[in-house]
Amino acid sequence: MNREPSFVSLAxxxxxxxxxxxxxxxIPPQAxxxxxxxxxxxxxxSSVPRAVQGLFAVRMLFASLLxxxxxxxxxxDVREVVGDEALMAFDDEHLxxxxxxxVDVHSGIVRVTTVVRLHGWRGRLYFxxxxxxxxxIVQSMLRRTRRVLVRGR
Length: 153
What we know:
Elements: E1 19-26, H1 35-42, H2 50-65, E2 80-82, E3 85-91, E4 95-104, E5 109-118, H3 120-151
Antiparallel strand pairs: 1-5, 2-3, 3-4, 4-5
Helix pairs in contact: 2-3
C-alpha cells in the first residue's frame, strides 16, 4: 500500500506559534487506542511523576513572581476529540497553548504535539525555563502513561 506521508494536528490551530514540539512512544499490543483516555491518563495526578509534580509547583511560583494568575483547574482537560486525536487548549494573557495527544494505531505510535504562542515579555520570560524542561517532562509523562495504561488492562 502506497501512502503519502502527512502530519496534521489539532494543536496546529492557525499555524502561527512560537514553540512547538512532538514526542512519540510506541503502542504496546495490549494498550488502548482511545486518544481521550491517553490524554486524560497522561495529565491525571496518578500518572504525573513526583518530580514533575514538583516542577509544576515551581512553575506556579515563578508565574506568581511575574505577576501572572495561577492556571485555573481544568487547564489540562480534554476540550475535543477529532478522529484519533484529543486536544487540550488554554488561552491566557501571557501565552496560548495547545496540546494534542494522537493515537495512530496504523503506525503503532502515540504522539504528543505541543504548540505555544507567546504574548509579551512576561510570556517570553515565563516560557524560557519551561521550554528547557518541557521535553523531559512530556517524555517522562508519556512513558509513565504507557505503563499505567498497559497495567490497567
